[in-house]
Specification:
Elements (H helix, E strand, L loop, with lengths): L3 H24 L8 E5 L5 H9 L4 E4 L2 H8 L5 E4 L8 H7 L2 E5 L4 H9 L5 E6 L16 H9 L4 E7 L8 H18 L5 E3 L6 H6 L4 E4 L1 H4 L7
Bound molecules: pyridoxal-5'-phosphate (PLP).
Pyridoxal-5'-phosphate binds next to strand 8 and helix 9.
Length: 229
């Protein structure tokens, strides 16, 4: 059954977000086709994901392994894992996710590669911390190069670039300016891995102005979450 009212709400929100993306690209002199919009569907029902797919969204992001695996089995698309990684979940994550955004532990790299298996590829973003705090995850910038070198030794892992979350309580423009510098250094060293996953509902316009290529947006499209993660 198609929920017409819900479809209309999501379509309106999505169109609004897309026009904000286009506007931000225009202001930053960037091509909107260089941006990938990932619909963050954590906590929302599969019926919403099917509506998004019907509206042309092809990329979906989840934070929890069990929830993501269940949803990915029901809706076709490119599935992104962006939550904190527990090592005992690596094999399961590799079974359904196409891209992992939150790799921030060197010890997870060989285990993830082994879980992906021979002849298969998983896209990888290395998460960088913008405030050196533990809360939102990520590696300190000084370890990025070593981490990237390690990822590159595993043919099953395809290094896309860097991912970051703006620290709570800080102006995202300031955080994303630091990210832009880190990203520029990283891209010079690894020019084939120059993607940048940054920007959520509250800060994606700022992220675009600082070079984000992958936006992870949930609540602006699907409405506020009753059970935030
Ligand atoms: C929840 C989440 C998002 C999406 O957040 P919204 O505010 O709903 O857009 C993006 N990235 C990460 C890592 C998240 O946990």
């Amino acid at each position: 059954m198609v929920d017409v009212a819900r479809t209309e709400v999501i379509a309106t929100n999505l169109a609004h977000v897309q026009s904000q993306i286009n506007q931000a690209c225009l202001s930053a002199s960037r091509d909107p086709s260089s941006i990938t919009l990932i619909g963050v569907t954590k906590t929302y029902p599969v019926s919403d994901i099917k509506i998004l797919a019907g509206l042309g969204v092809k990329d979906f992001g989840e934070n929890r392994d069990s929830e993501g695996r269940e949803k990915a089995s029901q809706v076709e698309g490119r599935w992104h894992f962006q939550g904190q990684i527990q090592s005992n979940k690596l094999a399961s994550i590799a079974s359904w996710a196409d891209v992992v955004h939150s790799l921030d532990d060197m010890g997870h790299v060989p285990r993830l590669a082994r879980a992906v298996g021979e002849g298969k590829k998983m896209g990888v973003f290395i998460q960088v911390s913008l405030d050196n705090s533990v809360g939102r995850g990520g590696l300190a910038p000084e370890f990025l190069s070593e981490m990237a070198q390690l990822v590159l030794t595993f043919p099953a892992l395809l290094l896309h670039g860097l991912m970051a979350v703006a620290p709570l309580g800080e102006n995202p423009d300031e955080a994303f300016s630091r990210l832009a510098v880190i990203h520029s250094v990283f891209s010079q060293q690894f020019p084939f891995a120059s993607a940048l996953s940054a920007g959520m509902s509250q800060d994606f316009e700022s992220a675009i102005s600082h070079g984000a290529t992958h936006l992870r947006i949930g609540s602006s499209i699907l409405g506020s979450r009753s059970n935030p993660l």
